Amino acid sequence: MTRQAIVPKELQSYYSDWKMAPGLISGQHVFLTGFTGTDPGGNLPEDPEAQIRNAFEKIGLVLREANLDYGSLVEMTSYHVGLRAHLEVFKAVRADYVVEPYPAWTAIEVAGFVQEGAIVEIRPIAALD
């Protein structure tokens, strides 16, 4: 099976520094790395809504690099520190990005992430067809 890394220029450090592809085409799907809410400069805003939007914007970078859009998403898992504290904000922001038919979604509470202060990480899967 042929696999192809999807590496938008804005996310090149994921590939070169962390040795992981922001997205990887395998078969008829694109598997995306989990994205937290850092901004393009690597800074983490304190505002939960800003973090969540930043994560969705990074997803969009990968989708566009693969000539896809948010309508290509078929599944997403979101990991949350303080899930109940920002679930409604997450749902509202998510609604700005996902389109019908809506992707499957699982939300999981976790203890923390690599970057202190991160409250969310989103790992989606998109279909090529």
UniProtKB/TrEMBL annotation:
- Superkingdom, taxonomy of origin: Bacteria
User: Known InterPro entries for this protein?
Assistant: RutC-like_sf, YjgF/YER057c/UK114, YjgH-like
Checking SUPFAM superfamilies in the record gives:
YjgF-like
Q: What is this protein called?
A: RidA family protein
Its taxonomic path starts at: Bacteria, Pseudomonadati, Pseudomonadota, Alphaproteobacteria, Hyphomicrobiales
